[in-house]
Design goal:
Thiol Ester Dehydrase, Chain A, 14-stranded mixed β-sheet, two-stranded parallel ribbon, 18 strands, HotDog ACOT-type domain-containing protein
Length: 470
């Protein structure tokens, strides 16, 4: 996802019926939430009156919108910023200078809330409902990406309406953890703000909060948390561009800044660690153990362990041509759409593997390696990488989804993203099947075995570093 920064947002008039991202909050740390409304009309309601566009028409020019593939949240965010985008598109200045002076901004200045009125808006509720009366996680991932982009725009804007906008690109997503199930019958909100800034990078923390009876936003009500990393590029040169500085004020803001700074330092130390390393003796033994059963499957399938399955036999795949309706304002396919499609495939893979309805737990760190453009042939390939059954009450299914940008005319295929999802099995589903247990996944080749070992070690290292940073 690429976002364009804005200039002097607070001075731009609010269009009719739009949601103002910069409404004055009741307190500095409690901004007014953006209400989300259903984007579908009820057949039982009268259609709402049309609003005049900037040129007297009843619709905004199509060129001002990222595409018609929009969740209700994406629609609300774009509506709230529509006047900003109109100025950029209808009256562009090719000779506009870059921002000359960086500003100091506080996290509260970028803090934004999104409110889902599930309890009163039944059409919105139906748009987000999954078959188990919970919120569709794939749509929620889209919304997180859209909100993170809006927050980044708010932080990077300056007070000079003559400077050229920045290009803001989703660089990575830290682990997204689901802490409890999210009901679709209870109001929901997402709260986010910038928590850390480097020279040209910005980290945003988002929390999905399920409303409680007393309406409090205590820690126990946080249902999901995620951290997004954006990088800024000069819209003319394409080079890294400096962004406004951050000045944390409260104790919590200072703590979040220190934790994010530690994560950034860790990323720098481990940068380039993707190169294949030599395995140590203990790891070689683990690799051989994984390969032992796989060789029996390949060479003597009749004698193979019936409680195991080859990794390649757990795979699923789908493909699509990226359409203009899925683009952002710069013609690229936005990250939320990619995460949504990857999640749906991972869920299906876990379902087909377990034979019971899976329950999502987390998404591990995601790097957006290469941009995806409109018209690209995109292929998603998934597999069950390994399972963890040491806790029979909560067996874990680790799914890998790899997104490939394929260009047949160039005979090329490049990895755009790699996603790692963790699922378990819904307790109520497991209770219906006596003696349920997950199969053990085994590799058929040394390359598969090495990949499993490296992935297990990376997961253990990330978990250790997170515990230490806290």
């Amino acid at each position: 996802m690429i976002r364009s920064s804005s200039n002097q947002i607070s001075r731009i008039p609010k269009p009719p019926n739009s949601m103002d991202l910069n409404s004055s909050p009741a307190t500095p740390n409690s901004p007014a939430p953006i209400p989300v409304v259903a984007t579908l009309s009820s057949p039982f309601d009268n259609p709402p009156p049309a609003q005049d566009g900037p040129n007297g028409s009843t619709r905004k020019p199509i060129s001002l919108w990222p595409g018609m593939y929009q969740s209700p949240v994406t629609n609300a965010l774009w509506e709230a910023r529509s006047k900003i985008f109109e100025r950029f598109f209808l009256d562009p200045r090719k000779d506009a200078p870059p921002q000359s002076e960086l500003l100091n901004k506080t996290p509260s200045q970028s803090r934004t809330k999104i409110l889902y009125n599930f309890s009163t808006d039944y059409i919105l509720r139906e748009q987000y409902r999954d078959p188990w009366n919970e919120v569709r996680i794939g749509k929620l991932l889209e919304d997180l990406d859209a909100l993170a982009g809006t927050i980044t725009v708010k932080h990077c804007c300056d007070d000079d309406g003559t400077t050229r906008p920045l290009l803001l690109v989703t660089a990575s997503v830290d682990k997204i953890v689901l802490k409890k199930s999210i009901s679709v019958d209870v109001d929901l909100k997402i709260v986010g703000a910038v928590i850390w800034v480097g020279r040209s990078s910005i980290e945003i923390q988002l929390e999905v909060i399920q409303s409680t009876q007393d309406g409090s936003d205590n820690a126990d009500s946080v249902a999901l948390s995620a951290n997004f990393m954006f990088v800024a590029r000069d819209s003319k040169t394409g080079k890294a561009a400096a962004v406004n500085r951050i000045s944390p004020e409260t104790e919590r803001e200072i703590l979040l800044f220190k934790e994010a700074d530690a994560r950034n330092n860790l990323r720098k130390r481990t940068r380039g660690g993707g190169d294949r390393r030599e395995l140590e003796n203990g790891e070689v033994n683990r690799l051989e153990t994984l390969l032992a059963e796989g060789r029996i499957f390949c060479d003597m399938p009749a004698l193979a362990d019936r409680d195991s399955i080859l990794l390649r036999d757990t795979s699923l795949e789908n493909s699509l041509i990226c359409q203009p309706q899925q683009r952002n304002m710069h013609g690229r396919i936005f990250g939320g759409f990619l995460m949504h499609r990857a999640f749906e495939l991972a869920f299906s893979t876990a379902y087909a593997f377990a034979g019971l309805v899976p329950c999502f737990l987390e998404v591990d760190h995601v790097d957006f390696l290469k941009p995806v453009d409109v018209g690209d042939f995109l292929r998603f390939k998934s597999c069950v990488l390994y399972t963890e059954v040491h806790n029979p009450d909560r067996p874990l299914i680790n799914i890998e989804v790899v997104a490939h940008v394929t260009r047949p005319e160039l005979r090329s295929s490049e990895v755009s993203n790699t996603f790692y999802f963790t699922f378990t099995v819904r307790p109520e589903a497991k209770a219906t099947k006596d003696g349920f247990r997950l199969l053990n996944v085994v590799p058929a080749t040394e390359e598969e075995a090495r990949h499993i070992v490296e992935r297990m070690d990376a997961q253990a290292l990330l978990s250790t570093n997170r515990v230490v940073s806290k």
